[in-house]
Amino acid sequence: MAHLSPMLKQATPVIADRGEGAVIFDEQDRRYLDFTAGIGVTSTGHAHPDVVAAAQEQVAKIIHAQYTTVMHRPLLDLVERMSEVLPEGLDSMFFANSGSEAVEAALRLARQATGRPNIVAFHGGFHGRTVAAASLTTSGTKFRSGFAPLMPGVAVSPFPNPTHYGWSQEQATDFALRELDHLLQTVTAPQDTAAFLVEPVLGEGGYVPASAEFLAGLRERADRHGILLVVDEVQTGWGRTGRFWGHDHFGVRPDVLITAKGIASGFPLSGIAASQELMGRAWPGSQGGTYGANAVACAAALATLDVMRREDLVGNAAARGEQLRGRLTAAAREHAEITDVRGLGLMLGSEFRTADGEPDGATATRAQQAAAEHGLLLLTCGAWGQVVRFIPALVVTEEQVDEAGDLWQKSLADVL
Ligand code: PMP
């Protein structure tokens, strides 16, 4: 008998049978509030009727119309509709399937377009599991250890992470920018540096928002040295943070934007956006792939866009996010073990530390598992697994957020 590989680490023992909005039912019909959303993917919730209908209609027409062989209408429509949501000037799109692939696409574009070899990534960033994406990932050694040698040409600079350093946001930002200048002077010269690759909010690294000053500092240095500013919006995009893109909170203009996860409500689809001029500096045929821009995934993305607009899911993410933040902050006030509640919109985390101030992954995991037993699915993140994160579908209701708040308090009472 074959088995599922033990390389996978399960967060919960749940076997999902079906889903509805922010809820999952298991095979015994037990109901779970799903505050994981498939790691921030099911933006419109599980089985949104409009997404289901669009996908079903497309499945019956054509499933796989390979996009470098023939084109298909859902792809052409999606490219056109992306202009409704893309930052100004980013008018050219390339599609792939996963976040990691899109990160690799951005990396290849940056190297080809600039003719420079090196990428600066920021400490705590997660960019994926393929070898190049893992080389850019510094959110935990578990994503790197034993896989060496990783890709050369990566330099890592600090991310402004106030709670990690025990500093104010201003101090952390000042430190991060000074270290970046130091790096450009000592490790990777500007003329060898193709791109800065940054998450607007560290995701797997612990749900740490960047600051406007930090991103403005990257923009300024990028402009000064002809370095590209690449934002990884795989987790922060598509309304997750209460604005359409995470970087919208900070008023910064990216040169390349990476998107995936929420884009197609659960169908595998990812992409990068840049200006036509920048994309034109890459060679035709230098990127592609068998499955990129799958027709059903593109149809689902179009339906996702419609639903997001009609149901104002970005607005709901902002409103429900504030409600959830209130509940998490109230719970933290009752338990000294929770030392920080942070994030943006519906991308929120509760950080656990010991009385000595050390990151406490063991307690975070116990709280996450107690929550699963109470019917609330959660994940952890952070270098030590010390942050429990809350990322429900953007359709989550006021009642569901309240219910999740109650279950979280019960779970904490069990383990603390
Ligand atoms: N970038 C970020 C910011 C992510 O959060 C993730 C996934 N958690 C990835 C890239 C990689 O995406 P995928 O797992 O689809 O390859």
Protein described:
The protein is an alpha/beta fold and 416 residues long. The protein has two domains: 123 residues, Aspartate Aminotransferase, domain 1 (Alpha-Beta Complex); 259 residues, 3-Layer(aba) Sandwich (Aspartate Aminotransferase, domain 2), CATH 3.40.640. The chain is 38% helix and 18% strand. The chain contains 13 helices and 17 strands. It has a seven-stranded mixed β-sheet, sandwiched between helices. A hairpin with a 5-residue loop joins strand 16 and strand 17. Helix 2 packs antiparallel against helix 10, helix 11 runs parallel beside helix 13 and helix 12 crosses helix 13. The longest helix is centred in the C-terminal third of the chain and has 22 residues. The radius of gyration is 21 Å and the shape is globular. 52% of the residues are buried. 4'-deoxy-4'-aminopyridoxal-5'-phosphate (PMP) binds next to helix 4.
